[in-house]
Amino acid sequence: MTIQPTFMLIADIAGYTRFMKFHRASLAHAQQIIAQLLEAVINATSRRLALAKLEGDAAFFYAAFPAGSEPSLDFVGEQAAAIYRAFHARVSDLKVNNLCKCDGCMQAGNLKIKLVGHFGEAAVQKVKNMTELAGYDVILVHRMLKNDVPIPEYMLMTEPVHERTDASIRERSSSHALELDDVGSTETFYVDLERYAGEVPEAPRLPMHARIARSLMLVARSWPAMLGIRKACAGFRNVQDAPPVAAS
Known about the structure:
Blueprint: E1 2-14, H1 24-45, E2 50-55, E3 58-64, H2 75-97, H3 103-106, E4 112-127, E5 130-134, H4 136-143, E6 154-158, H5 159-162, H6 167-170, E7 174-180, E8 184-192, H7 193-197, H8 208-226
Parallel strand pairs: 4-6
Antiparallel strand pairs: 1-3, 1-4, 2-3, 4-5, 6-8, 7-8
Helix pairs in contact: 1-2, 1-8
């Protein structure tokens, strides 16, 4: 186990639970959609961040740096915008090309993405085939998920992140004091992701045969969850063994 300067980022998919109807077909499709969206978010972070683990409808990422270093986090703004664009490109594709009319599929277009980021120290250790992060700063970044930021989609960051990012995101951020459980008063800053990342073009409509094939694939992938054999997101469990990534 080593204690390293670490940038931590949680990408949280918001707005889904309140729409789900708990009958098997809708819930199974909802889980498949969440899995697809998490996959898009993970792909958007692969150059800079490592996946620590999935946490329900959220993904916990990190970048660990050599002990004693004072790294720049100039990449954070670009990374936040990339996650936002990848997420909404997949949402748009689901809206345009999914033929299923169940509650889960119909509500996919209402999903939002929220990011919280913190820079501090974390104990990075291997537990069997998983990478685990522990420490006060890991607790802090998770507490940030419960906040009163007044916009639906944002990048929320602590002062240690804000002061290390580039001017493009600092100049567009607003100060926001939080009172966090078990942490206390914490100075944070947030950026409106929709304005910062820019408009995401609507996905192209696929030919009807391709849309039908997609819908059949969704049904096929949902059957194990509908029958209670496994949870739809279980396929991501092995992704947790991603190695630490040191940002340049």
